[in-house]
Design brief:
By secondary structure, the protein is α/β, with parallel strands linked by helices. It is 45% helix and 11% strand. The protein has one domain: Alpha-Beta Barrel (TIM Barrel), CATH 3.20.20.210. The protein contains 16 helices and nine strands. The strands form two sheets. The protein has a seven-stranded parallel sheet with strand order 1-4-5-6-7-8-9. The two termini are 31 Å apart. Bound molecules: coproporphyrinogen III (CP3). Coproporphyrinogen III binds next to β3. It comes from Streptomyces dengpaensis.
């Protein structure tokens, strides 16, 4: 199996040669590729329209709707990659965890996992549990042409934080209590989540995803020594599980300036950076042999078009010496972002970096 071809060998080579996948592989690109975390949904009126009356989790299980929402930002913004429309808790729902996504709140778990007995809630995930994912990706690869599709999953720590807290959390106190107080149970929990996450990513790659992103959104809450001891083994297990497919593996978290080197070491090909660390400094922390993704502050999009260009220029200048750069925001698109500001940003990055 050649690198970055799906096992079925169906992936057209125009996808393989796309600017996004080339940048991930640290090859020369015709222009800096751009996509946005949380580009699907959120600020788009056409998204709000098709989602009307359909709860979030249900919308993730309807293949035609998933395909449509995934394609909307590609049509509108001319981004260089699509991200599969789903949520990090979808695989947990698929194995029967009682949870919901509450509008304006996020994932809420009915019975938080805090004891060894609670671990029994986490059974293995099989492709049959998420047949709608395989189906939706089939529809998408047919429509996307040479535009790569990014599959994704939540990393073990971030999934554990929702499962242990029972919902979104600022301080992650229950999660840390378990991590420090019962290291063996914690390790077993993260290992279970690594198995589920690996299985979920494999389904997406085998269906045709050209790259995967592992979101460890909240891991920036940890110090490096704790990350290395208590989180890295599980994240490494996930990256190792999908290594043989040869598709780029992207790893991202918020507030992870002190963890960037370790997150690369965990097995990422591309390290995502939030807006707090300039990309040249991030490259020093990550070291050679990795591409970087980022890192315009999503709040910058609320300023004037001129200010957006100035701040974008700063990102591109800091990225000038990188081995590979995928332009993105430093975190997801904020819900009230003007969609036209995103379209203008894609065009600006493309024209500024066209070779
Ligand atoms: C931490 C996390 C979650 N989900 C996700 C993360 C990691 C990325 C990050 O750090 O932002 C990942 C995610 N969630 C969603 C996507 C879709 C693809 C994309 O456009 O990037 C992706 C990649 C859709 C969604 N996920 C969610 C929505 C909103 C649901 C709705 O509109 O009803 C969407 C479009 C819900 C959700 N789900 C989660 C949160 C915090 C929320 C927001 C709650 C809110 O503000 O309403 C958990």
């Amino acid at each position: 199996m050649s690198a970055n071809h799906s096992p079925s060998g169906q992936q057209p080579s125009a996808t393989y040669e796309s600017a996004f996948l080339k940048a991930c592989r640290r090859e020369p690109v015709p222009h800096t590729p751009v996509w946005f975390m949380r580009q699907a949904g959120r600020s788009l009126p056409e998204y709000l329209k098709v989602r009307e009356g359909i709860p979030m989790l249900e919308s993730c299980m309807r293949p035609e709707l998933v395909a449509e929402i995934t394609l909307q930002p590609v049509r509108r913004h001319n981004v260089d990659a699509a991200i599969y429309f789903s949520d990090i808790v979808v695989p947990l729902k698929a194995i029967g965890i009682d949870l919901d996504i509450k509008p304006g709140v996020g994932p809420v778990v009915e019975n938080p996992i805090r004891s060894r007995a609670d671990l029994a809630q986490l059974r293995d995930l099989t492709p049959e549990d998420v047949r709608y994912v395989t189906e939706a990706i089939g529809l998408l690869t047919a429509e996307l042409g040479s535009t790569p599709l990014i599959g994704f999953a939540g990393a073990p720590f971030t999934l554990a934080s929702y499962l242990v807290e029972g919902g979104p959390s600022k301080n992650h106190e229950h999660t840390k209590a378990l991590m420090y107080g019962d290291p063996q149970l914690w390790a077993d929990l993260l290992d279970r989540l690594a198995e589920i996450t690996s299985a979920f990513l494999k389904v997406q790659i085998e269906a045709g995803a050209s790259a995967v992103q592992l979101f460890d959104s909240w891991v920036g809450a940890l110090a490096p020594a704790d990350y290395r001891r208590s989180v890295m083994p599980a994240s490494t297990k996930v990256f190792d599980a999908v290594a043989s497919y040869g598709v780029p593996r992207i790893h991202f978290g918020v507030g992870t300036g002190e963890l960037l080197g370790l997150m690369g070491e965990a097995g990422a090909d591309v390290v995502g950076v939030d807006w707090r660390v300039p990309l040249d400094e991030a490259a020093r922390r990550v070291g050679p042999g990795k591409a970087l993704q980022g890192n315009l502050d999503p709040a910058v999009l609320f300023s004037s078009p001129e200010a957006v260009q100035t701040k974008t220029r700063e990102v591109l200048d800091a990225a000038a010496g990188l081995e590979g750069h995928v332009f993105n925001l430093g975190h997801g698109v904020l819900p009230t972002t003007d969609p036209d500001a995103l379209t203008r940003l894609v065009e600006y990055v493309h024209t500024q970096t066209a070779r």
